[in-house]
TrEMBL record:
InterPro entries linked: Ig_E-set, NXPE4_C, NXPH/NXPE
Top-level taxon: Eukaryota
Biological process, per Gene Ontology: nervous system development
NXPE C-terminal domain mapped to chain residues: 314-539
Family assignment from sequence similarity: Belongs to the NXPE family.
The species this protein was found in: Channa striata
Lineage: Eukaryota, Metazoa, Chordata, Craniata, Vertebrata
A Pfam family reported for this protein in Swiss-Prot or TrEMBL: Neurexophilin
Name of the molecule in the record: NXPE C-terminal domain-containing protein
Length: 548
């Protein structure tokens, strides 16, 4: 890492280097806000029964049911001891009263590159009393601003109010060191509602739609996908037939979902993404790797971060040699003669927008699609490059999508020929946070099956999957898109595609390890690092032939 640095520059960097560990307590977050002029006078009363929504669609096989139980087990979240008493803010976790301590190593307070740094966190409530149960949502980052370095830490919940946070030490220098949401996800998947416009001639009607609607309140239009069995329903218009549906759109957010006491748990600057302070020194000095063989036993927990930042660039630890793709001169040769198909939510549409902004030769073809909705297409005819984006099927909280353009990703993949000049990029997570996890598992299962079929018939096809990322928080929308929801969807995604011939771009760690604020659509420096990793996978660096 250091061999290309002049000696004086190296010393300067080591002397100037500083950073910090920070631990974020995070309860909720945001996907997007779209004001709607359609506010139904009487929204239907939803059945508070998770199985009604989660187990619609095709009947699962015994193997699928076994996998689902496994996936639900790996995201099971510890919580407080059962109690009939109501939630009281003063007895909940308070980041201001909580503390962390950097623990010494087995040989004292010396750390070397390749070691692990461990911090112990003790959570206290608003009365300053230590908590004796787990379940807090903590995220951690070790950061050195002057070097543009950062890496994500692993949080271990000891379920007694204490948490261990473990960091891999990857560079030299100094470094400074949920019951309401679960209930809403399982009982109120209708807290974001959707709508569709039906039109025939001069007559039009708008009705409420969702993945699961009570069947005994009004007649339903059944739009369940015939290929995947993915369910979707709208209330039937009073005057029009079901086949007159024109579009799909987000209707709005339901209000008054929690009590006033529960609302106290969701306060920005109080218990949402607030720093936990150290009880002692928050800096360490990291020495070069040990040259001699050590008799020290290895750490019991082996950390496996997907990568880390150094000098502002992402260095992957997953086997991908990440190169820099700075504009057309490096991107065009990589994408020449390729078709890039992007499917998913707005977080992958951001990749499409980045590429057409960075490569002027990619000319966007006007498909007269709604802004921020798509589908979109860009072409570089001189270099035979075709770039396409299409949003995933419902549920999706976009403003207005034509019914004819509502496509499920698995069906789109089944229609691809594939091959060595075909690249597929997938990102699907942000619009599933209001539904039981079983709904997301079912959707990923269809996509995974389609990916397997595509790779079987066209082995040279490249598949890239973008994971979830942390987001900015806003109190009003905290109950709809929490980071707590997202981290569980992220774990499910990783588990379901583990071992497959796909590249996972770890947007979670890339957004957490970076010093810039969290955002649903990460800022350009983070997006560039994602694109660099994506292109490095599409165009791996050729190994140099050494002449004998």
């Amino acid at each position: 890492m250091w061999q290309n640095f002049p000696r004086c520059a190296l010393i300067f960097l080591l002397l100037a280097l500083s950073g910090f560990i920070y631990l974020l307590r995070n309860i909720y977050t945001l996907e997007s806000r779209v004001q709607s002029s359609f506010i139904p006078e009487h929204l239907p009363t939803f059945y508070h029964n998770r199985t009604f929504c989660a187990h619609l669609g095709q009947k699962s096989s015994p193997e699928d049911e076994l996998e689902e139980r496994y996936l639900l087990d790996i995201i099971a979240w510890p919580g407080p001891l059962p109690s009939s008493a109501p939630v009281v803010l003063r007895q909940t976790s308070d980041p201001v009263h909580s503390l962390f301590t950097i623990l010494p190593t087995k040989t004292g307070r010396q750390w070397h590159v390749g070691d692990q740094l461990e911090a112990l966190v003790q959570i206290h409530d608003f009365q300053g009393r230590p908590k004796h149960y787990g379940g807090d949502f903590l995220v951690a980052r070790l950061h050195s601003p002057e070097l543009g370095a950062g890496v994500v830490g692993e949080v271990v919940d000891h379920k007694n109010g204490f948490y261990s946070v473990l960091f891999p030490l990857l560079w030299e220098g100094s470094a400074q060191a949920v019951a309401v949401l679960r209930r809403l996800r399982e009982e109120r998947p209708d807290r974001v509602f959707f709508k569709s416009l039906f039109r025939l001639g001069f007559l039009s009607e708008t009705t409420v739609c969702n993945m699961c609607l009570p069947p005994d309140q009004q007649p339903l239009c059944n739009y369940t996908d015939v290929h995947t069995g993915e369910p979707w329903f709208c209330y039937k218009p009073k005057m029009l037939s079901c086949d007159t549906r024109v579009n799909h759109a987000k209707g709005g957010y339901l209000k008054h979902l929690i009590t006033n006491k529960e609302a106290l748990l969701f306060q920005s600057g109080v218990n949402i993404k607030v720093y936990i302070h150290p009880s002692g020194p928050d800096r360490i000095n990291v020495l070069p790797p040990r040259k001699e063989r050590s008799n020290i036993k290895p750490d019991p927990v082996k950390l496996e971060p997907s990568g880390y930042y150094y000098e502002g660039t992402w260095r992957s630890l997953s086997g991908i040699a990440v190169r820099q793709f700075n504009g057309s001169p490096s991107i065009i040769p990589c994408l020449r003669n390729k078709v890039i198909n992007m499917y998913g939510d707005s977080t992958v549409r951001q990749w499409f927008e980045y590429l057409i902004a960075t490569v002027p030769e990619l000319k966007e073809f006007n498909l007269h699609s709604p802004k921020n909705v798509g589908p979109f297409m860009a072409v570089d005819s001189s270099h035979n490059i075709l770039l396409k984006y299409r949003c995933h099927g419902p549920p999706i909280r976009f403003t207005t999508v034509l019914s004819s353009e509502m496509r499920y990703i698995s069906n789109e993949l089944d229609g691809l020929s594939g091959g060595p000049d075909t690249v597929v990029v997938l990102s699907i997570w942000a619009h599933f946070s209001t539904f039981p996890v079983e709904v997301y598992i079912r959707r990923l299962r269809h996509i995974r099956r389609a990916v397997v079929h595509l790779l079987d018939r066209a082995p040279g096809t490249l598949i890239v999957i973008r994971s979830a990322n942390l987001q900015a928080l806003d109190q009003e929308v905290s109950l709809y898109n929490s980071d707590w929801f997202s981290v569980q969807l992220d774990k499910v995604l990783r588990a379901m595609f583990k071992g497959m011939d796909v590249l996972l771009v770890d947007a979670w760690q890339m957004s957490l390890a970076h010093h810039l604020p969290h955002a649903l659509h990460p800022p350009p420096p983070i997006i560039k690092n994602m694109i660099d990793m994506f292109l490095s996978y599409v165009c791996p660096e050729k190994k140099k032939n050494h002449q004998k």
